[in-house]
Every structure is written in C-alpha cells, then in structure tokens.
Write a structure and sequence with these properties.
- The chain is built from eleven helices and nine strands.
- It is elongated, with a radius of gyration of 19 Å.
- It is 38% helix and 17% strand.
- It has two domains: 1-30 and 77-119 and 170-247, 3-Layer(aba) Sandwich (Rossmann fold), CATH 3.40.50.1220; 31-71 and 121-163, 2-Layer Sandwich (SIR2/SIRT2 'Small Domain'), CATH 3.30.1600.
- It is an alpha/beta fold.
- Bound molecules: zinc ion.
- Zinc ion (ZN) is lined by residues 127, 129-130, 132, 152, 154-155, 157.
- Zinc ion binds at residues 127, 129-130, 132, 152, 154-155, 157.
C-alpha cells in the first residue's frame, strides 16, 4: 500500500473523519506522553481528586502549567496538521477527533467547532464549577503578582487547565459528538495514534462496522492494522502532504 492509495481513498471519500493522536504532534516537537522519555516518565501525573482536594497539588499543577513543563503547548502546527486543515477547508473532512491537548488543529486553521477533543485542551483553563474559560497568560500574571492560586473571576470556584486529568470523568458531550461523526463518515482516517486507549480506540472499529473504510497512518504497527483497508507505517507530515496536497 502506498501514499498514492491513500490519495485515491481520500479522493473517493465523501465524508472523512480524521482521528489524531500523539504521533501527529511529535513532528511538532511535542513529546508523546506514553513513550520512554515522555512526560509521564519525567513527572508524576496529578490526579483529578488530588487537584480538587489538595492546595499543594494545585500549586504543583499550576507551576507545571505556567512553566510549560509538560511541553504540551506553545509549539507550531506541522505539515500533517496543515494537510488535515486543508481536508476540512475543502469540505472533505467533517471533523477532527483528537486525543491531543495541544490546540494545534485549531492553530492550523481548523474551525474550533470542528475539533472534537477527547482529552480536553491544555492551552487554556476553565472553572470546574461554572466552566467559564480563563486564559493562561492572565492567570499566570495574576499568580506571579499575588502568589494566589487561580480562582474563577465569575464564581470564585476552582480553575484548572482544560485537559481531562487522570481520574477525571470523560465529558459526555465530545464522546457523543465523536460517536455521531464516526457513524456518519465513509472514511475514518487515523493519524498518529497507537489506538490503545479505550474508549477512544473504539471509534475506528465502530466506523468499520458501520461500513466506512479505515485508513491508519502511524509510525509503528497498531492493534487495529488487521482491520484497516489501508495501513502506512510512515511519518504523517510527508504522507499527508502527498495525499492532500496544497492547491
Ligand atoms: Zn466559575
């Protein structure tokens, strides 16, 4: 199977859902948190319950967020993100479901309402009580000036980066939207996900069962390769630039 086969599949599709994981963003220099040397081999995750119950843990979490220690944000989208953005702009792809929290699909020009984030977004914060959005630079400036941990400017509740932490329930809304998009597509295109984290990894199977074709581009083999109509073990940027070239 070749890059040309993927280009043909994309050309033949009427409604593509793109599903992305860490592999698309490693090409932007964002570490894969699961890999050796990844974020969780360097620092211990702070569980949601710890954040909510411990001021000390909240301070640790905010110090990490403000210092960019996890390396999740502040990078630029790469050729893979731009190719995905072209598929959306052309009306080929109806949505992008992502396991990433780095905001790079939005940064590459995909309209935010077309990005379905299964694990949230690390580039801003939200109130845990009223969901009011807060921007990190403002919170950081306030924290540095006062030493006080961020709290909601509307209701005074706890504010946390908008990632879904370990131990935090997956929000139902993105899961429901991802499922509806998956059922409506005729090509499910996986880019840079090892497809091991459930429930997210269930979407390709769901698409396949519903008659869609399944294409997987990932550097390493995935458990779902045997179910796919096309598999490329390759870099995403070059593959997608060839498959969805700039006009
Ligand atoms: Zn609030």
């Amino acid at each position: 199977m070749s890059r040309a086969d993927l280009a043909r599949m994309i050309a033949d599709a009427r409604r593509i859902v793109v599903f992305t994981g860490a592999g698309i963003s490693t090409e932007s220099g964002i570490p894969d948190f699961r890999s050796p040397g990844g974020v969780w081999s360097r620092m211990k995750p702070i569980y949601f319950q710890e954040f909510v119950s411990s001021e000390e843990k909240r301070r640790e979490a905010w110090e990490r967020a403000f210092s960019g220690a996890a390396g999740w944000v502040g990078r630029a989208p790469n050729a893979g993100h731009h190719a995905v953005a072209r598929l959306v702009a052309q009306g080929k792809a109806s949505s992008v479901i992502t396991q990433n929290v780095d905001n790079l699909h939005q940064a590459s020009g995909v309209p935010p309402e077309k990005v379905i984030e299964l694990h949230g977004n690390a580039s801003y914060a939200a109130c845990l009580e009223c969901e009011e959005r807060h921007e990190l630079p403002e919170l950081k400036a306030l924290y540095e000036a006062t030493g006080d941990l961020p709290s909601c400017r509307v209701c005074g509740g706890l504010v946390k980066t908008a990632v879904i932490s370990f131990g935090q329930a997956m929000p139902p809304e993105p899961m429901a939207r991802a499922e509806a998009e998956t059922l409506a597509c005729d090509l499910f295109l996986v880019l840079g996900s090892s497809l091991v984290v459930y429930p997210a990894a269930g979407f390709p199977i769901l698409a396949k069962r519903h008659g869609a074709r399944l294409a997987i581009v990932n550097r390493e083999p995935t458990d779902l390769d045997p179910y796919a109509d096309l598999v490329l073990h390759d870099e995403i940027g070059p593959v997608m630039t060839a498959a969805a070239p700039a006009p």
